[in-house]
Amino acid sequence: MKNDLLRSIAAERSQLAGPAQRIAEIVLDDPEAVIKMSMAELSRAAETSDPTVVRFFRRFSCEDYQDFKVRLAQGLIPQAPFDYEPITQSDGPQSLCAKIVTNSLHAIQRFASDVDATAIDKAVDKLMEARSVFLFGLGISETIAFDAEHKLFRLGLHCRTVMDSQKQLLIAPTLRSDEVAVFFSHSGATKSLVTAASMARSKGAYTIAITAPGSRLTQTCDLTIGVPAYENTELYTPLTARINHLLVVNMLVTMLGSRQGHELPDNLTALDSWITNKFVD
Predict the structure, then answer these.
(1) CATH number belonging to domain 114-259
(2) What DSSP state is assigned to residue 237?
(3) Three-state DSSP class for 281?
(4) Total-model pTM
(5) pLDDT by residue (tens digit) across 230-266?
């Protein structure tokens, strides 16, 4: 992913020792300037030596200083705007279906460069530690919460979806420090959901937002898994905006299954036949 290097440096900055931390701060504060620096100039700016700079870029799997600058530059290339094909009354069945698929694919491809794997990894840690997991969603986000409940339940987690804003506001202040509350929201601006998150966090529950970066919900929760709201995704096809939320659920479930030692973590064990009650030919 294009911005992996900057994200990796930001994630490890607090773990770095003095000179390496100074290099990290210079890179994160002004990456454009670093791209134009020679290694000697970066060494002087960080008040350290060339060998320290070498150890720094090798820590992030860069072959040499030039490779380090190239990868840094790639992370600064502006993302192309979300390529959305409007659906109109003149679209026939074939055109309409093709546009839905195309718009969905473009949303997924854009998200591939934006997904924060570090946040997902941390969320899995918290889910595994939790005594109980509560899943909050309103409107169409309820479907995402239900999907998460179904999959997490099959991995053995004690989880529960909480629908209806009044019920959410009643349950949120009862949560405790050994519980996790996950909030699903496309906009991150729904007042009752933000209020419920604030209540849950104030009582010690660990709160996770799966929502638009920079929203009110992200400011309220302990951890955010950002799902950007790309241009025009709610004009005619709001479901394309939810596809990436479903992908985040799959990422969480797969990583959780892997941690639990499942041989095929991206495949859930089939439910018992008495639950699904299928016909057997």
Answers:
(1) 3.40.50.10490
(2) -
(3) coil
(4) 0.68
(5) 655 444 445 666 889 999 999 999 999 999 887 776 6
